[in-house]
Design a protein that fits this description.
single chain; 451 residues; mainly alpha; 86% helix
């Protein structure tokens, strides 16, 4: 059986399990990728290295945003086309996605390298941190093509019904990074440059893996030369759906910049380092949820395209329950093991105190985040770009940025930590209202179809 056809026929719970588990493992491994970087930098370079990586992180997020813009937009369309039994249309999307990724990487890399020092200063780099941030970011930018291609195209592998290969891509990069980081930082004494080189080389190997997969036609889709020529309607379709995750990542970068400056004002440089740790822990906690969301995406997209609305509703409900359970578990870990978590990165007493307080407060509403993420990404999976953009931006940008400006005026550093849970509550409530309405409409359409 064609792997993609199983999306419309197999039992939903079995499909969600088979797609989500590899995605969860891959996303957790991907989060550990960044956590491992921070642990080795924190232990091998010190607090200044953690601050430098935190300052540079928004630029790395923008690089990821470009890959998500193309990859997730194309993946959603590929799932829908396969649900419509249009394999040629899906391969056309794949070919155009490759061309888009390569074109965008050239533009973003050249622009970022040209303006690198002013950008880092704008992001909050102080004179003592700037050399470290510049060394790290220059290498990352120079190898950004690998991050774009491996991340951007890996979602399409999953979208065509092959989650195991998508997982293998992430495992290859993460395991190599874990091996190369200590080798370069401690063994070769390359310092923060060693961490950057470990990241780039790991992504390069993953990129070769992804390209060989598509060129050989190892899955449902094959990368063909005739589909590389850009078509405006295809590019527009990818851009419309990819705009939501792209804006979310860019917005997250903006949030990081705003947070860095607020943290410097109300808590000093160590508060910036503390948030760098908190952000990576949050990413680690949310990666399983994003894995469930990614696992559900091809099932939702395929069945929506095929008109199987009952299966769409069942997938959404199961995904929400699973994501909420994971968030509750993560919440308990954070609240009970806050000090131990921060000490993994650095043993500085003041940093541990700042970080543990911030960790418990910033992640106070973690249990409801899973529902909001699954619901927001549902709209992306079914191609409703406008809703997807708004609901993906709600939690991390539309609500969070104003809170970062307002709350510290009353409660100082604690106000910054409280901005997170307040934004989470507002986003979950607003997204929930529209999600309930959407599921009712799908149920009505299913009833009409069945009568």
């Amino acid at each position: 059986m064609d792997k993609s056809a199983a999306l419309g026929e197999h039992k939903i719970s079995a499909l969600l399990w088979s797609f989500s588990v590899p995605a969860i493992i891959g996303m957790v491994v991907n989060a550990l990728y960044n956590v491992v970087d921070s642990i080795f930098v924190g232990q091998g370079v010190g607090e200044i290295g953690l601050i430098a990586v935190t300052i540079a992180f928004p630029l790395m997020m923008i690089l990821m945003a470009v890959g998500m813009f193309v990859g997730l937009g194309a993946a959603a369309l590929v799932s829908i086309r396969l649900g419509e039994q249009d394999k040629a249309g899906a391969e056309l999307i794949l070919g155009n996605a490759v061309t888009m990724v390569i074109g965008l990487v050239v533009v973003t890399t050249v622009a970022a390298l040209w303006y690198l020092e002013p950008l880092l200063l704008l992001l909050g780099a102080t004179p003592d941190v700037l050399p470290y941030a510049k060394d790290f970011t220059t290498i990352i930018l120079a190898g950004s093509v690998f991050m774009h291609v491996s991340f951007g195209l890996n979602g399409i592998i999953r979208a065509q019904g092959d989650p195991k290969t998508a997982l293998a891509t992430m495992l290859i990069a993460a395991l190599l990074n874990t091996i190369l980081n200590p080798l370069f930082i401690f063994g070769l004494h390359w310092g923060i440059k060693g961490s950057a080189w470990a990241t780039v080389l790991s992504q390069a190997v993953a990129t070769v893996w992804v390209m060989v997969y598509f060129l050989r036609g190892s899955g449902t889709l094959k990368l063909q030369r005739r589909y590389l020529a850009v078509r405006s309607d295809v590019v527009t379709g990818i851009a419309k759906i990819g705009m939501a995750p792209f804006l979310l990542q860019v917005g997250n970068s903006l949030v990081m910049v705003v947070l860095n400056f607020s943290l410097l004002e109300y808590g000093g440089a160590l508060a910036v380092a503390a948030f760098g740790i908190i952000n990576r822990v949050l990413m680690l906690m949310l990666m399983p949820v994003l894995g469930i969301s990614q696992g559900a995406q091809p099932i939702i997209g395929y069945n929506y395209g095929a008109g199987h609305y009952r299966r769409v509703i069942a997938t959404v409900k199961m995904a929400v329950v699973a994501a909420t359970g994971l968030c509750v578990f993560g919440f308990l870990c954070v609240q009970l093991l806050d000090v131990q978590i921060i000490r993994l990165f650095n043993g500085n007493h003041e940093l541990v105190q700042l970080g543990s307080d911030g960790l418990r407060l910033f992640l106070l509403m973690l249990p409801i985040i899973g529902f909001q993420i699954i619901s927001a990404n549902y709209f992306q999976a079914v191609g409703k770009a406008g809703y997807a953009i708004v609901f993906n931006l709600l939690r991390q940008i539309i609500l969070l940025i104003p809170m970062i400006y307002i709350l510290p005026r009353f409660w100082g550093l604690h106000g910054i930590w409280l901005a997170g849970p307040i934004s989470d509550i507002g986003a979950a409530l607003l997204t929930g209202i529209f999600m309930v309405r959407e599921l009712r409409q799908l149920a009505s359409q299913e009833k009409v179809k069945s009568s």
